Amino acid sequence: MTSDFIASSVNVNPVVIRRTLSSLKAAGIIDVKAGCGGATPVKEADDITLYDIYSAVDCVEGDLFNFHENPNPECPVGKNIHAVLDSHLADAQTALENELKSVTLADLMNQLNILM
What we know:
Layout: H1 3-10, H2 14-26, E1 30-33, E2 38-41, H3 50-56, H4 81-101, H5 105-115
Antiparallel strand pairs: 1-2
Helix pairs in contact: 1-2, 3-4
């Protein structure tokens, strides 16, 4: 598929799609041909997880939940907010990443075929 075709499907500027395709290519997930060659998967759909895609497009570097960098040490909430929330947020990020690792592109294609 070409970036113009994909962009029209998701209703975004083709430049956004080209950047995303570039990230996917750098991660070894797709191959991109210039012009009207478009993009094609390098791996089988069973071998590409949502986590692979999530990691390739650099949605998040490090912690998903990054907040309150400089809490007021005099504030009873601010000085304790990380002690209270950080482990829960880390668990939530791990759960998200594990779910993404459990779903392949083939799974999504099968679900889409059922809906169509």
